[in-house]
Amino acid sequence: MKKIFSIIVLSAGIVGFTSCSDFLDQTSPSEQTTETIWGSEFFTKARVDQLYGGMINGDRTYDQDIPIKWGTNTDVELVDGLGANATNSTHYRGVGNYSASPAFTNFANSWDDMYAIIEDANINIEGIRGSSMYNNGTDNERTMVQRYLGECLTIRAMIYFDLLRYWGDIPLKLESSKSDLSNAYVGKTDRDVIMDTLMVDLEEAIDLLPWADEVSGYTTERITKGYVHGLLAQMAMTRAGWVIREQAKEGYETASDYSDPTYPTQRPGAATRRALYEKALQHWTAIITNGTHQLNPSFKNEWELINKLTLDQTYRENLFEIPMGLGDSGELGYTAGVRMNFGDVKTTNWGYGNSSGSLKVTSELFYSYDPNDTRRDITCSYIDIRPNSSQVGVETMLGNAPFGLYVGKWDVRMMSDSWKSQNLNAAGKLGYGINPVKMRYSQVLLYYAECLNELAGDPDAHYEGDAGITAREALMQVHTRAFEAEHLADAQAYVNSISGKDAFFDALVQENAWEFAGENIRKWDLIRWNLLVPKIMESKQDYLTHLTDGTYQKTVYFKYTDSSLTTIDPSSVTWYTNADDAKAAYDALPAEEKALWSSVSSYGNSYPTKLDDTQIYTNLPNLSCGLVGSTVVSPDYGTIVGSGPAEPVVVNRYLMPIGSTTISASNGVLQNSYGYSN
After folding, report:
1. How far apart are CA 231 and CA 158, in angstroms?
2. Of 617, 649, 554, 655, nearest to 82 (Cα)?
3. CATH number belonging to domain 2-321+659-664
4. Are 482 and 375 in contact (CB under 8 A)?
5. DSSP alpha helix (H) spans, 340-386
6. Fewest beta carbons within 10 Å, which of 236, 297, 312, 641?
7. DSSP summary character for residue 340
8. Which residue, 330, 344, 306, 337, is CA-closest to 426?
9. What is the value of pTM for the model shown?
10. Cis peptide leading into 388, omega within 30 of 0?
11. Per-residue pLDDT averaged across 170-194, rounded?
12. Cα-flanking dihedrals φ and ψ of residue 407, to 5°?
């Protein structure tokens, strides 16, 4: 392969890989002629499967960077390593805090790897459209290769959509590279033009593909009709939303807040937005009314299945999962998830300490949940696993780590026996095999609710082409799913209490955090709402407020379920109990029961008079400092200044810079913008 600035030019044959999943275990037809490849169902399928292989072949695409590292920071999610690390511009910690440099090599690597998939998709699309099976084949042959075409069109659109969310305006190249390189060097295309073009492709793909499990082999680990509907609708809503632009566009609205004078934050005019929301509603409605995809009634079971590498073929809540390979690929569970905090030590019950837990969520998110919301303890893990003196991995409370909770959605305690068997025998890092989920049905419902509320102007109103349920009813499904039967009435009362279009939108913004924290979803919605900056600033102020108003406990008490002190009873933790009352209750316990209890310093152990506190005076101001600055002003704490820039270089600059090596190899057609150097 030869890299051409961003596009990796591939031959008509498949690049060979060592197998790490079914999609990498393909016979290479690289020695075959073009006619042989595209005239053969076997080789055509192998070419399409290569696209899936490209998504999981290395950390820079969907194995690690896209589902984990490029999705931070938000108001509820952050990358670990604050303080001085927040401004490390050539490390993912600096990237998460919006302090990135074009010199960070992972930018160019991600760019190259994603454009390589696009190049291969272009070759496939041209090959299929020109093939004898597509043009003159039997009905069965045409149907088969049309499905492959639908997959290629959708994967190409998905890759471009992710690229433009990270980098803004990017090169759009919809044909394979020519041997004389006459079409290799391509400049930027406006992202609106890109999305408009891709939505046309997706409309075609919808007609070519089956619903999940409608046709043998088309599970939710392949592109199917439901995901194409969802991707198109998601793209339409993104197209209607706010984005930072390299220059102002005529006829667009400029945001009154959080907009840079040189690089304005804009969105289309009202008529265009309504048309885009109507388009999105059409496709959300198609998913809902078809019924192939539904909510799993149990939020916990949804995540147990994901951790156990088990496809849900009953509810199919996940519209599309990128298929990883156990032992070979997948950083979910390692970089994101409950941490096994024991390095090279092998524990007798969990094996190798095979995780870093670099993706974090906050105490603010934890305390925002209703105490009875089952999503709280699944999303926010306040424990890690550490070895005791007998090298048994035991649950340990984290203590005062308000910006250091792990994302519990990926949890070794929920993983399969196959994973555990491999990890017990591991001597180093191995792939967890957990599939990144590109869209869940709960997203469909909340997006649908947002569309309908916007178009109808009221959460209880209908609009032509809707799915027969109101926006409130869609939100009700997502919210109440998180509550057990004894708390269901209170959950229903909360949803029913939301009054009016604006309050309902605010409730959807909050539900988005409760449902999707840690899943590389929230950042992109906050951006299109122009709420990324204000929500991050709000979360910082709320943290300081909750230190002084009694929300946070200075000490929490908790009980182990066993005499070996291995497993913590989550229902025992005194999160909402006055510290003095909790201590008094602990002191009154008989000795044999007290032996099962312990305590730890908690989030409230930082306060105004503690002027050297790391959480307040180092970590807090440096959170997302490249985007919002490192200055925090509070009535109780005065002016707090971190080590990062006091003010952002460019207002609302959430986009990443194009890598230096990408620019240097572009033959002069690419340059950075938004104040980034080249």
Report:
1. 7
2. 617
3. 1.25.40.390
4. yes
5. 363-368, 375-379
6. 297
7. B
8. 344
9. 0.95
10. no
11. 95
12. -85, 105
Tell me how far apart the alpha carbons of residues 670 and 664 are, in angstroms, rounded to a whole number.
Answer: 8
pLDDT score at 83: 84
Contact 19, 46 (CB under 8 A): no
Chain-centroid distance of CA 279 in Å reads: 24
Say which residue the tokens 């092998």 belong to. Answer: 346
* Residue 609 burial class via C-beta count within 10 angstroms: exposed 0-12, middle 13-18, buried 19 and up: exposed
Q: What tokens does 575 get?
A: 């999160």
CB-CB neighbours of 450 under 10 Å: 25
Q: Is the pLDDT of residue 620 over 70?
A: yes
SS3 at position 278: helix
Paired tokens of 537: 């600033």
Give the strand pairing for 359-361 and 188-189.
Answer: unpaired
HSE of 479 in the Cβ direction (CA atoms, 13 Å)?
A: 26
Q: Name residue, tokens 């907009």.
A: 259
- 298, two tokens: 């149990």
Q: What angle do the packed helices 441-456 and 501-516 form, to 10 degrees?
A: 170
Q: Which amino acid is at 113?
A: D
Please classify residue 493 by burial: count the beta carbons closer than 10 Å to its beta carbon, then call 0-12 exposed, 13-18 middle and 19+ buried.
exposed
Quote the CA–CA distance of 633 and 635 in Å, as a whole number: 7
Burial of 405 (0-12, 13-18, 19+ CB in 10 A): buried
Residue-wise pLDDT for 552-601, tens only, equals 999 999 999 999 999 999 999 999 998 899 999 999 999 999 999 999 99
Alpha-carbon Rg for the chain in angstroms: 25
Boundaries of every domain in the chain: 2-321+659-664, 346-432, 555-601
Q: What is the pLDDT of residues 525-554, one digit of tens each?
A: 999 999 999 999 999 999 999 999 989 999
The string of pLDDT tens digits covering residues 37-69 is: 888 999 999 999 999 999 998 789 999 999 999
pLDDT tens string 386-400: 999 999 999 999 999
CA distance 441 to 476: 14
Residue labelled with tokens 């999610």: 77
Cα angle at 147 between 451 and 15, to 5 degrees?
A: 110
Q: 645 vs 97, 101, 354, 631, 642, CA distance in Å?
A: 11, 14, 35, 8, 8
Q: Which tokens belong to 553?
A: 């406990």
pLDDT of 344: 80
With CA atoms as reference, report the closest residue to 438 among 208, 115, 222: 222
